[in-house]
Amino acid sequence: MWIPTLVLCVLSATGELPVTPPVPLDAPGPVLPTEVPPPEVPVTVLLRLTIDRMGEVSQVEVRQSAGVAFDRAAMSAALRWRFQPARRGEEAIDVRV
Questions:
Q1: Distance of alpha carbon 91 from alpha carbon 97, whole angstroms
Q2: DSSP string covering 11-53
Q3: Is 43 exposed, middle or buried (0-12, 13-18, 19+ CB in 10 A)?
Q4: Whole-structure pTM value
Q5: Tell me, what DSSP letter sits at residue 64?
Q6: Residues β-bridged to residue 64
Q7: Is the dihedral angle over the CA atoms 89, 91, 92, 96 positive or is it negative?
Q8: In angstroms, rounded to a whole number, what is the distance separating the alpha carbons of residues 27 and 20?
Q9: Beta strand pairing status for 86-88 and 19-20?
Q10: Cα–Cα distance between 92 and 51 in angstroms, integer?
Q11: Local structure of residue 96 (DSSP, 8 states)
Q12: CB–CB of 86/21 below 8 Å?
């Protein structure tokens, strides 16, 4: 299974409960349209995701593009990913990663 790399840094100077980052549960890879030739070299699309309290990706934003076809495939795949939601203490919270 293809699992994306997630990096989440949380700093708290206010004494709030610590935030536990989301954990990937299912991350199907992108599927390119058949009319798009496969890339000759690896490509990277950097995404910013909003993961909601249910562990679903609710928003996707392209931060670094690899071209329209690759961006769309990456965004479509990200919307199918599922996570154990982030938590502040015992409470599930929305996060952007």
A1: 18
A2: --SS-PPPEEPPEEEE-PPP---TTSPPPSS----EEEEEE-T
A3: middle
A4: 0.78
A5: E
A6: 46
A7: negative
A8: 19
A9: antiparallel
A10: 10
A11: E
A12: yes
Tokens 């910013």 found at: 48
The Cα-based distances of 19 to 12, 37, 52, 62, 64 in angstroms read: 9, 42, 14, 25, 26
Dump pLDDT digits (tens) for 10-65.
Answer: 444 455 789 999 999 999 999 988 888 888 889 999 999 999 999 999 999 999 99
- State the Cα–Cα distance between residues 78 and 47, nearest whole angstrom: 9
Helix (H) or strand (E) holding 61: strand 57-64
C-alpha distances (whole Å) from 3 to each of 6, 23, 24, 29 are: 9, 10, 7, 8
CB atoms closer than 10 angstroms to residue 34 = 6
Do 61 and 68 contact (CB within 8 A), yes or no?
Answer: no
